[in-house]
Amino acid sequence: MGDPWEFAVHAINGRWFSVFASFLIMAGAGATYLFGTYSKDIKATLGYDQTTLNLLGFFKDLGANVGVFSGLLAEVTPTWFVLLVGSAMNFAGYFMIWLAVTQKIARPAVWQMCLYICIGANSQNFANTGALVTCVKNFPESRGVMLGLLKGFVGLSGAILTQFYLAIYGTDSKSLILLIGWLPAALSVIFVYTVRERKPERQPNELRVFYHFLYVSIVLALFLMAMNIVEKQVDFSKAAYAGSAAVVCAMLFIPLIIAIREDWVQWNLKNQDGMRPATETTVDRALDIAPEVKSEVSKEKEEKAKESCFVSICHKPERGEDYTILQALLSMDMLILFAATFCGLGGSLTAVDNLGQIGESLGYPTKTIKSFVSLVSIWNYFGRVFSGFVSESLLVKYRMPRPLMMTFVLLLACVGHLLIAFPFPGSVYVASVIMGFAFGAQLPLLFAIISELFGLKYYSTLFNCGQLASPLGSYILNVKITGHLYDHEALKELAKKGMSRSSVKELICMGVQCYRVPFIILSSVTLFGALISLVLVMRTRKFYSSDIYKKFREIHGVS
Questions:
Q1: Burial letters for 133-151: b for 16+ Cβ neighbours within 10 Å, e otherwise?
Q2: d(CA 48, CA 479)
Q3: Do 228 and 374 meet the contact criterion of CB atoms below 8 Å apart?
Q4: Which tens digits make up the pLDDT trace of 443-462?
Q5: Is 1 helix (H, G, I), strand (E, B) or coil?
Q6: DSSP class of residue 546?
Q7: b/e string for 521-539 if b means 16 or more Cβ within 10 A?
Q8: Backbone phi and psi for residue 515, each to the nearest 5 degrees, phi listed first
Q9: DSSP letter assigned to residue 77
Q10: Rounded to an integer, what distance in angstroms lies between the CA atom of residue 440 and that of residue 159?
């Protein structure tokens, strides 16, 4: 069976170990979703009003979604360099925020805090580009499930990091900022050389392996949900928190066992093939066919390269072929996606960022508010894996257009917004679940649609460009509308008490009226986004009714 050392090298260099490493990197790449947990510390320590806090939230969303730089960097540098740059940015940004909140440095100006949080949040794009894009290129025919799983771990990362911070630092939420500064950075550095692009190989049981990963992640999500409930009912000791974190850590390493198992199978098959050099297998024939297909493709690319840049923009390729960056960005399909993302993700980000203040305005205790944030994180995960696996299954079996799933998700998000606008006892629990699920489901769908419509050649840049609408929507809906209307209601309450803004350090609004009008507006905007996405469904219906993965089977020589 070969030397154990040779197998270890084979496994570490294999596609499946790269998937495991990507899971861990993604599990630390969702620090932005914990903003609702530590935003109260920033607001109280630095004396911000809600509009200023929402401005910080906007710059967080801006950094988290403007990943064009990381995408362009990935086009010209290796993956390890992209991960290292992201690691350095993550530590620098969040460490400066921690120093400011713990008052170890002089009180920063608002623009400095905005810069720090933007840099820290932007680092997750480097993790996304390094790990997510690499895995999609390594498993092009399973991109839906791959995206669902990877973004699912990002969705769980808020709850995962919470368990680690409780075990290491106790209940000091300021220390959470320090944790999200060093832990994700460390993960990227540890696995910096294992995440890289490999030659895609069609494996008959590939989907079954991904389902094994899915089952592990579901058990992890259920455990995190159970711990979230128990920790709100029982006062845990430091040892109990440490035990919980140890279980989470063990579950995160179960995919490593699955990865080693698959690499062991591949290792044995390769050794058996090596013992029969004279025999021409199906794979050997496929490899003979593959260069011919690739040479034809390269000839077509050379002919296209001779065309003028402006001519190529006007004459776009068929959907599913490799678009250039300009061709994709100037296409009607991308503009429709941009508009739907502006409405859908912009509204969802606004709701998630304000969750802490929503709970506070409705009179929920601090422990309960933290449970809302954890619920969003966990259901964010379920939304991501659901949209990834279910949309892939419906696409393969019934040729259902993936944009239609996005329409359904946006309609569900409308329901969550309305539950905040018209609350009843316990409605925020239900709204947290719905908003987390809908928010999570949108990203894998967006990334998969972009890869399917515009090809994988410039995917590193295009998927980062595709989410640019998200921070723009967040700025208008969160800062300009929600934050402004919240402060307006809070000032009205102060006026009734005969007080002015200067007489209070922190501007707080209490009551159902604080978020009613903003969330009616969010619901209306999200509904408009759902209607826009239906236009894309009609435009791409013919494309999705065909076999969109056929060309990958031809290139890899698999019938």
A1: bbbbbbbbbbbbbbbbbbb
A2: 14
A3: yes
A4: 899 999 999 999 888 898 89
A5: coil
A6: S
A7: bbbebbbbbbebbbbbbeb
A8: -120, 5
A9: S
A10: 14
DSSP SS3 for 501: helix
Distance CA 140, CA 452 (A): 10
Q: Which 8-state DSSP code applies to residue 276?
A: -
> Does the predicted model carry a pTM greater than 0.70?
yes
Amino acid at 158: G
Residues 179 and 198: their CA atoms lie apart, in Å, by: 32
Q: Output helix, strand, coil percentages for the chain, rounded to the nearest 5.
A: 80, 0, 20
- Using one digit for the tens of pLDDT, what is the confidence trace for 497-536? 878 777 776 778 899 999 999 999 999 999 999 999 999 9
Residue 314: is it exposed, middle or buried by C-beta count within 10 angstroms (0-12/13-18/19+)? exposed
| Pairs from 74-78 (Cβ < 8 Å, separation ≥ 24) | 74/129, 74/130, 74/133, 74/460, 74/461, 75/458, 75/460, 75/461, 78/196
> The tokens of 202 are what?
């069609």
98 touches 66 (CB < 8 A): no
Following CA atoms 464, 390, 184, 479 in sequence, which dihedral angle do they give, to the nearest 10 degrees?
A: 60
